[in-house]
Target: UDP-4-amino-4-deoxy-L-arabinose--oxoglutarate aminotransferase
Amino acid sequence: MSRSRGCGEKINAKTRAVVFVGYGGRMGRLDEIITLCKKHGLKLILDAAHMSGTKVNGICPGTWEGVDVAVYSYQAVKSLATADSGMICFADEKYDAFAGNPNIQIISAPHADECSYHTYEIAVPDRDALLDELAKHEIYGGVHYRDNTEYAMYAYDHGTCPHAHEISRHIITLPLNLWLTDGDVDQIIKIVNCFPQDK
Model:
């Protein structure tokens, strides 16, 4: 989850850890989740698949105090595009020492707060209609992720994540790639801003 709202209500005697998803490279309310995990003595696993390059005050969220494990995944459409693989970073030095190299220095970011923008989403009242309108202009947005409970294998949990369910009905991923020109960006902005959103 990437929100603190309602997370505490899901914690019970069987809970051992919380998984926080840095969706689209955003950190959301990670600080609140860290506080919640500390309060309940839970481990915090950061799903940082989209967060390669995300920084807050120049610091990668995966290295924050309170994040026990940061997990990255790599494949063709991830921020770090390579063969299907992954990386796990542990806060505990006895685990991290296996991968550490003191001869490698990370280059500092020029700004205090940065998002990797692995994806760029907006939420609109009529998502499907806007997708159709964009397609008329050969602009192809998408819907990358839906509420898991929309899938048959997770239908038993329907209603447990109302915010995720609501936002998944409205969210659209706009084109974002190295080949977009300023003119392309202006056209996308114009279509999105001019499209009727009062439905």
